[in-house]
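Lab notebook, bench 4. The sequencing result for the construct came back, and we need a structural model before the next group meeting so we can plan mutations. Quick request posted to the team channel:

Model the 3D structure of this chain.
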Amino acid sequence: MLSEQLSTMTALLRRTANGYGGRLYLSRQTTDILLSNLQFLAEDITRYEQSVHGMDVDSPAVLAIIRELVAANAARENGEAGGTTCTTTKAD
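Done. Here's the predicted structure in token form:
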């Protein structure tokens, strides 16, 4: 099931981050694979939502992830623009 696969993916990402003090360091290749396949997943979910038997799949968790990524990107961009180093906090 999709939920089990997402849970497995999350556990693997968390284990990777825990190995680096709470930070997620991925190679360019791994990052590309991750992001490309997340886009494919979004397209699959869109097709499901638009199908005859589909339903809207809405999750507050996804919105929380989006908010965090937006904030992290803004902090990074502000850090680069201002000449300061952007810091991150250790994952719980």
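The first helix runs from residue 2 to 18.
Will bring this to the meeting.
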